[in-house]
Amino acid sequence: MNAPNRYELYVLEDGEKPVEITEDTKIPNAATIKIVKQDHTLGNMLRAQLLSMPQILFAGYKVPHPLHPYFLIKIQTDGTITPQAILHQACTKLIGTMSSLETKFNREFSFKDVEGTGVGVGGMPTEDPYGGTGGAGGAWSGAGRDYLDF
Amino acid sequence: MQSHDDLEPTVRIRELKKDRVNFVLGNVDLAFANSLRRVMMADIPTVAIDMVEIEINTTVLPDEFIAHRLGMVPLMSSNCDEAIRNTRDCTCLAGCSFCSILLVLNVGCHDDTTMEVTSAHLDVIPYPEEGLETQDSGEELSKRGEYFGHPVGKNEPGVAPILICKIRKGQELKVKCVAKKGIAKEHAKWSPCSAVSFEYDPYNKLRHTKYWFETDERGEWPTSDNGKEEEPPRDDEPFDFNAKPNKFYFEVETDGSLGPQEVVMKDFSNFITTAGSSRTTDKIGQPHPRTQNTTRG
């Protein structure tokens, strides 16, 4: 009854900011960034990308609660760049990787273009999941009578 | 830091069938490959039956049971991004031809044999006139393929329909269904994939797992076919604890609502929007005012 809409897991509410940055007060060049309506898909990928960059001293992420659709990513840099800027760079790099992979997939698919794409599935077995070949079952015993005639 | 960091990612499609694609991804890191898998499974929109209005149900199955089974029927969803809107973004009150598809099922058994109610009995019907089309300038309808929203396999010979229920003489099932767009994060029925297999390191050189065995590890855990793609380790090979996986074997099997090519390509566009949305905003996103104060204080 008071269940939230299921789509609130992945759709930003009106005026909700997708990213919120909290600078760390005790650690230099560090920040915790809250990314809303995203999960491990982005969190882990972003963390891995950050770790591969030389300016990073620390990068880690957590999803504090599985029912709360946001994650926190903690970044510490060596001071040559702010955490915000490096996160921005990491996103750009990821997008670059993805677009290059996209073109490669496109090319591969065009080589392999077989038996039409898009709609439909073929090569499915004609037999139904219950082992038969579809169609009706056998007649009931005492055919001719209605099923309510006992 | 990572040996394959500067290398371009590679991809090789080993097999492409109508409902599946098998490919090898190289020079990316584990997290990236895993995200790709997650996006294909849970972030790609399709259409599925979401609301079921039961008019007559004299079958042996309860209403909820049938509604659930109807929801699981895959519907043709090609070009879902452009061909249909999310109901929550639509201007209509409860559903219109731009954001939903109507399907009806009306069968009764009048024979002495058991009758099977299947997905082939589901018929797409046009939205009952609504005067809305004139004021709404949506172009969604023109982007739809001929069979958009139809149950998968209904218009193809040789594809067995999906059994919903069996009825006997005198029983009847009459329902009206509304199909909507959604993603599998909301409900698994919206997933375009029926299975995604994902493997790396077939010889377990990286020791990311430990195989439990009775007497003989190799004999009890045969390597998969992907083992042919990599060199088997020598027995005296020392463990390289810095090694990183960089070859990932995927097999994506769709339920027919989207073709495998569409699933993979959508994957990237989706991926890019997710990463992009966080990037664009954190560019302008200044530190939160409240936290700025804390920093000073």
From TrEMBL, chain A:
Query: What stretch or stretches form a coiled coil here?
Result: none
Under InterPro entries, the record lists: RBP11 (IPR037685), RBP11-like (IPR036603), RBP11-like_dimer (IPR009025), Rpo11-like (IPR022905)
Specify the domain of life of the species encoding this protein.
Eukaryota
The UniProt entry's GO CC annotations, sorted and at most eight, read:
RNA polymerase II, core complex
Q: Which UniProt keywords apply?
A: DNA-directed RNA polymerase, Nucleus, Transcription
Please name the SUPFAM superfamilies in this protein's record.
RBP11-like subunits of RNA polymerase (SSF55257)
What this protein is called in its record is DNA-directed RNA polymerase RBP11-like dimerisation domain-containing protein
**What is the native source organism of this protein?**
Laccaria amethystina LaAM-08-1
Q: Upper taxonomic classification of the species?
A: Eukaryota, Fungi, Dikarya, Basidiomycota, Agaricomycotina
TrEMBL record, chain B:
Q: Which SMART domains match?
A: RPOLD
Alphabetized UniProt keyword annotations: DNA-directed RNA polymerase, Transcription
* Highest rank taxon of the organism: Eukaryota
Tell me if Transcription is a UniProt keyword of this record.
yes
Q: One short Pfam family name for this protein?
A: RNA_pol_L
Supply one GO CC term from the record.
Answer: RNA polymerase II, core complex
Instruction: List GO BP terms, alphabetically.
Output: transcription by RNA polymerase II
Q: Where is the composition biased (Basic and acidic residues)?
A: 218-231
Under CDD domains, the record lists: RNAP_II_RPB3
Locate the DNA-directed RNA polymerase RpoA/D/Rpb3-type domain: which residues?
20-274
Q: Does the keyword Oxidoreductase apply?
A: no
Region described as Disordered: 218-243, 275-297
The family note in this entry says: Belongs to the archaeal Rpo3/eukaryotic RPB3 RNA polymerase subunit family.
Q: What is this protein called?
A: DNA-directed RNA polymerase RpoA/D/Rpb3-type domain-containing protein
From which source organism is this entry? Laccaria amethystina LaAM-08-1
